[in-house]
Amino acid sequence: MVTLYTLSVFSGASAATHYNCNGPLVSTLPHSSFQSSSQSSASYAAHNAKLNRRDGAGGWSPMVTDQDPWLQGRYDSWDWVSSYLLLHSDTGRAWKQYRHEDGVGRFVGNVNSEAVVQTKLSHPVKTRFLRFVPLDWNPSGWMGLRLEVYGCSYKSYVADFDGRSSLLYRFNQKSMSTVKDVISLRFKSHQAEGVLLHGEGQRGDYITLELHRGRLDLYLNLDDSRLRFSSGRVAITVGSLLDDQHWHSVHMERFNKQVNLTVDSHTQHFQTKGEGHSLEVDYELSFGGIPLPGKPGTFLRKNFHGCMENLYYNGINIIDLAKRRKPQIHSGNVTFSCSQPQLVACTFLSSSSSFLSLPSATPATGGFSVRFQFRTWNPDGLLLSVQLNPEPQKLELQISNTQLHLTLHSSGRQNDGLWHSVSLDTRNLQMALTVDGEPSTTTELWEQVESKGNFYFGGCPTMDCQVLTPTFQGCMRLIFINSQPMNLSHVQQGVLGNYNELQFDTCNIRDRCLPNLCEHGGRCSQTWSSFTCNCSGTGYSGATCHNSIYESSCEAYKLIGSSSGFYSIDPDGSGPLGPTQVYCNMTEEKVWTVVTHNITAPVTVQSSTPQKPHIMKFNYSTSAEQLRAIVSGSEQCQQEVVYNCRKSRLFNTKDGSPLSWWLDREGERRSYWGGFLPGVQQCSCSLEENCMDMNHFCNCDADTDAWANDTGILSYKDHLPVSQIVIGDTNRTGSQAIYYIGPLRCYGDKSIWNALASDISFYFKTSTPSGVFMENLGLKDFIRVELSSPSVVTFSFDVGNGPAVLSVKSHLPLNDRQWHYVRAERNVREASLQVDQLPLRFLEAPADGHLRLRLSSQLFIGGTASQQRGFLGCIRTLTVNGVSFDLEERARMTPGVSSGCPGYCSGSSSLCHNRGRCIEKSNGYICDCSQSAYGGTTCNQEVSVSFDRESSVTYTFQEPFSVMQNRSSQATSVSTESSSRAREDVAFSFVTSQRPAMLLTVSTFSHQYIAVILAKNGSLQIWYHLQTDRSPDVFSPTLSNLADGRLHRIRIHRVGQNLYVQQCIFSPVFFFLGRENLNNEVMQAASKGFIGCLSSVQFNHVAPLKAALTNRGSSLVTIRGPLVQSNCGALAESTSHTLQGKRHHTHSDKLNGDIRELFSDTYSCNFLAVFSGVVTAVVFIAVCALAVMSRLLYQQRQAQRSSSSIKEEQRHSVYTDYRTELHLHNSVRDNMKEYYI
């Protein structure tokens, strides 16, 4: 037996107040108010299910044969209910399931027959009927139930609109102008279209609330002429599935331009466009339709068909005025009781076993007809199946790939969650299919067909039919066979037909995309039981678009081996801020993040006074929030300020008020100048004691006719960047100023070197075999990450669905005193755990499980709440939901924890360069350069090789090797998602004067390849040939001639759907994408080979050129022809130093020269991106045995020297068929791949 105590449930009854809404409602009800699906005997009737009563046998209990027991409206036994569903209804016919805020519909019941289980609803329900559906009960007994419901009565004013009626509320004056509006109402309807409210004015203002496709649209215009004269009005849309015949509440508040629109529990906040702050409506507001002026009964749009309740406009009870026939209300054909017909539906629950079987009614003529309505989210499912006579014919109506199929095909998407009507008629020697009242699609029949046996809806028993199509999951209603309505209540009672896995009297459809659980603008799509997120174009990946595909800083890009260039960084990782593009200067030991603004040239100022000063506002290439995140996450930031003056003072005034100043990022006025400390009106020359006039604190305050300058660096991080500058003293004769504000430059990433939540990441190193990294607890929920054994990291949690555990086991010990990376994520779709570069582990979340992690304790780092299993070692870079924790600051105030971490490899300076790995030793450190294309003790020495026409290097990788993903782009269990998150990185330098020339290829034996060549004109071309039935894609990052005998550095980088090509050259860059068939050009490049020098060749973690020099005897490396080590890569170093010298040229050195040249800033590397589907996945995913650089091209060159076999060789070579398209969603499963230079 289960006993309940339910709070905050409103029961529709007589009028009363809303105060003290906690009175008992069930105990006072008469016996007639209780109904049930069955009762085991009169002593267990439904009316005995009252809490704290001993009527009958002490409770309700159904018959043992009851297939779907329910109680609508016993003590001292072994009968109780341990879990149940709660349904509510306004009429007792159509029911709606109550769900908690996280979408869970199951309620917890009893564990014995006596205890009272109290359940407080998370949101109140206004209803007249309640139904309890037991799910589980005592396995040693049977189900039994007693209950009480607490709430209060509810006052209701109702109006019924029949689709041709409306209410008009006329104003006392011609026009009503309001600055604030409050509109509230409740409505219910079974129509997906209809106007709830409309008003407009002669100025062009309007307001419309309208049901459209089962959602609520708000159109609002406040004196915006663009909207007034445009044909496409923009709507704010809230809610979903609002045509379900259940009450929905609407509340709209507007104050000036700020609007809040709430439907049920979903709210949209927005601001109106235009210049107006008031809403001007002329004459009247209409409810239920938009009447056409001068034509009573004629409406511009489809009217509302349904009921409205408690309709208030700015505190005025519209329905009450209409009922009392007040003169300001005109009610046309509106009645004041809700008499809408209840269309009873049934829900098909299972995708494999649900069906509804109904007998055929005898038709008046030959043939048969069937019609019904359905709604679903699934793109596939069987709707109707029936055997035909004469045999062996069969008719099947199904949804296939979102469309209806019945041998005939109907167009239009049918899985949009809306109700769709279907009518099928086989009379008069033709078959006609009608969908949603559109013109029928017909086909002629050779003979008259009739139904044989039962009609199966949604599926059929396996004994009667073999159906390959998934069974239907969704709702059906209004089923007619041969024009006879089918009573679903009779089916439920066992009087009519048969069924399996059905839920009656309710359409239990839910919109899993409301609210949208896809983050960062991901697009949500759904089926009946799950949802997916399309993250393309968002800059994020993961099941819910949670993980940024970009690194968090320039420092992070350098750590993965990147060089200077423009990069997209995501300063808060998975946080709410999006990515932004910055320039990363990696030519120095410090890695500088450079953020530019709109004023790049020096500005000359004249004729400004303190009363009318010159004002310049700086707009940066990133948003204010992103700037704040970049600055706060950096160790140090600075901004150069150059002020050249002639008779233009800064602070030299009698009263001490400044003549010029600047505003910080918060808009606060700052009067200290570049190079000095905050709060003091001085310049850098004062600090250095070298001002030209020691009576003043700035050079410009000397106020001389000669040019002077006050140049310095602003470095107080909390004030940066400069947002505005004000110059006020250039109005005197000969007075002039020239100023320049440099870009914001920051270095260091505190989040990398320091030391719930849906994602946690950190680094650790330890020598102990186990320990808890972190733990957070709630009443029942918890989350924990720990080193459970020397080689196993475990992520465990409980969100209310029971404990879940994810583990990653390493083949090497993790307690090796080296840094290891851990990332754990839990979202509403799945949980994942990654350790270093080991394969990602996943665990899918249950479809209807709890969503929210309810934690109430503090987050414990390095231990647990019980102070057991503590961690002994180092943790750094702790990030939770994109927020970095300052562990060093916490360590200073926590006993047993110290800041910093012993070891050479813990510092912020990169001891090992170019992907080199720092390894701690007892007396120092060494650099592991095995995954770097560079050599030397710190992985910074170029590895260069000179080639002639006969030279080639082939590198073959023959063991399982996954190089396409790293921690910045996590994969999921779904192949298409993992494909979209793959990444590849190719980098090399070259010097040549030959054209055409083959630089590099990556290929498989299935004739798929990536080729990088120099074309006939010397331009760089990148070929992607990844599907053999379509032509290749060609990328030309530059049209310049690169076969010029100079060193060029190329980097090709792809993340998800974004392809980047970086080239360090000295000529303008152009870009185009084409699908031209350029076979001859590639063939010529392949046959010519390469004459020149290649340096620092890297493909992800493979350095083939370095392997060729250091492992000449390896079976993985094949060398043909002479191979001579060179020093051409040294040119890159000298070039970069030259550029660095130019770039840091002091802006104040020369004033008499060209001012624009004086302040110019030159970068040598261009970084370009191609977006949205150019490259969608990499061909190398899931390849078990990879090889790098193919000998196929070499074989082709050898073949061309033999005239007798050239045609045969070309036919079988990798370049035989170029008729492909770059379509990379399908993974290649070859057992060999080669990498060829």
From TrEMBL:
It is a single-pass type I membrane protein. GO terms for cellular component: membrane. The chain crosses the membrane at residues 1167-1194. It holds the Pfam family EGF. The keyword RNA-binding does not apply. It is found in: Membrane. Keywords: Disulfide bond, EGF-like domain, Membrane, Repeat, Signal, Transmembrane, Transmembrane helix. Residues 158-338, 345-507, 728-901, 960-1128 form the Laminin G domain. Residues 545-597 form the Fibrinogen C-terminal domain. Residues 509-546, 902-940 form the EGF-like domain. NCBIfam families: GGGWT_bact. This is Contactin associated protein-like 5a. The lineage of its organism: Eukaryota, Metazoa, Chordata, Craniata, Vertebrata.
